[in-house]
Amino acid sequence: MNFHQPPVTFVGQVNLKVENLERSLAFYQEVIGFKVYEKTATSAQLTADGKTVLLSIEQPSDMIPKKGRTTGLYHFALLLPDRADLAKILKHLLQIRYPLQGASDHLVSEALYLADPDGNGIEIYTDRPASKWEWNQQQVVMVTEALDAESLLAEDTGGTWNGLPAGTVMGHIHLHVAELTKTEEFYTKGLGFEVVSRYGPQALFISSGKYHHHIGLNTWNGVGAPNPPANSVGLQSYTLVLADEVKLKETVARLNDLGAHMAKEKGTFITEDPSGNRIMLVTAKS
């Protein structure tokens, strides 16, 4: 099953605020391997396949550096088509000596972790076949173990690194939130996701269509963590792609019933989770 196309609800695009557009552009092109889809004096849209925007970066005026211990982005995660692609980008990162923050085997996936020049977290990963994921009733089994880098690098058949492969998608997003009770209600009763994993009282993972997770939520910055200042670098918003207009209307109705913040800008419904993380609701045909 493809977990990033209808009828599944999935994360389509992440929109970041950065302190220096040109510095970020150099990083996302030369280190991560994005291509520029569109660029203005203050923003850029980035793509892997030349057609679909996965990441938008913007430099508003008066930006300040990322503040610690706030809600917002923990990391966004780029899902590569296969293990050989992950091997190739690991080799590339090692060759340019870009510092990794981690490299993990989660059983359902293998992942590399790093940060952009503003401290925005990035995961680059590949999934193991869904048939090999272990489920304990409604909970998927995920762990964090050391990545077998030697085994992974053996997948690289050589050749030149040419950036992100065209089949790259936004696999998931992981957010810092202020608490989990109202947050869980918002994402499950409002947006229609299912909880598929819990890490004690501090984190939960939710998905659509029995994926291992489309969204991670944690209180690792502290219960009651404040929202970042409006002019802080970090997450501006992200999009959730719903199957069709019927699903969109149903979702908006549920969010209204919950009393969630709702707005409509340029024809797009926008909501915020209880921690102020901004979400744009779009359909697959938008």
UniProtKB/TrEMBL annotation:
Q: Which UniProt keywords apply?
A: Metal-binding
Domain of life of the native organism: Bacteria
- Pfam families noted in UniProt: Glyoxalase
- Membrane-spanning intervals of the chain: none
The record, for InterPro entries, names: Glyas_Bleomycin-R_OHBP_Dase (IPR029068), Glyas_Fos-R_dOase_dom (IPR004360), Glyoxalase_1_CS (IPR018146), VOC_core (IPR037523)
Domain VOC, by residue range, is: 10-127, 169-284
Question: What is the name attached to this protein's record?
Answer: VOC family protein
**Organism, per UniProt?**
Mesobacillus jeotgali
